[in-house]
Design a protein that fits this description.
By secondary structure, the chain is of the alpha/beta class. It has a single domain, classed as Rossmann fold. The chain is built from 5 helices and 11 strands, in the order E-E-H-E-E-E-E-E-H-E-H-E-E-H-E-H. A 7-stranded mixed sheet has the order 1-3-2-8-9-10-11, with helices on both faces. Helix 2 packs across helix 3. The longest helix is centred in the middle third of the chain and has 22 residues. It is globular and about 40 Å long.
Length: 210
């Protein structure tokens, strides 16, 4: 299986207007698969193309996009490799399925949320924005290989729970500051619960996406 082509397990659900519609790249959480976030994608944008790949790393038998080594510590090489693989996968998929590669938003939960924000930071040309639920800051110092990216015009929604132990606020604050320093438009949403997705947040982001 080559993660840089279309051989990785994935789901493609096209809209009626494939080339003219937004495409949502759906990145699932730990232990889920490529089917998990399809209802979320439809709830966020019922007119979008949905492209949902499976995370190819295994940790304790669970599908992930990269490993969590310990609390708030990630396998940074896997994060970098995954971001490159997802960017290549998007490029191959746009050629195969005919969607506009310049109108893609990454949508993720938990491990997939961290994958989505890392994708925007490390491969900024691959997505126009990010919707991240239950996210964290993966890197202490993001390894920009080609200098600081210009994220002007990119949109970021970060939607977390106030008592989510996987998303400590001080780290999320650093991520928000980093995105804003790079020019992205960031909106931070907070619900009172834990590591879950708020329906109110989904509805608000849906309105703002439309």
């Amino acid at each position: 299986m080559n993660p840089r082509d279309l051989s990785r397990p994935h789901v493609w659900e096209p809209s009626k207007d494939v080339s003219g519609s937004r495409t949502l790249l759906l990145l699932h959480g730990s232990g889920a698969d490529e089917f998990d976030l399809l209802p979320l994608g439809r709830a966020l944008d019922p007119n979008a193309n949905l492209l949902s790949p499976r995370g190819l790393r295994k940790s304790d038998g669970a599908n992930r996009f990269f490993k969590l080594l310990e609390q708030d510590t990630y396998d940074e090489k896997e994060v970098i490799d995954n971001s490159a693989e997802l960017a290549d996968f998007l490029w191959a998929a746009s050629g195969e399925y005919g969607f506009n590669p310049d109108n893609v938003y990454a949508v993720g939960f938990s491990n997939g949320a961290n994958a989505s924000t890392s994708l925007l930071l490390l491969q900024p040309d691959s997505v126009q924005g990010v919707v991240a639920f239950g996210n964290n800051k993966v890197f202490e110092d993001t390894p920009f290989k080609k200098g600081l990216p210009d994220l002007t015009g990119k949109r970021v929604w970060l939607a977390n729970g106030a008592i989510d132990e996987y998303s400590p606020q001080y780290r999320v604050d650093k991520l928000i500051a980093e995105f804003r320093q790079l020019g992205a438009q960031v909106e931070f949403l907070l619900h009172p619960g834990g590591h879950t997705i708020s329906k109110d947040h989904v509805q608000q982001i849906r309105r703002e996406l439309s």
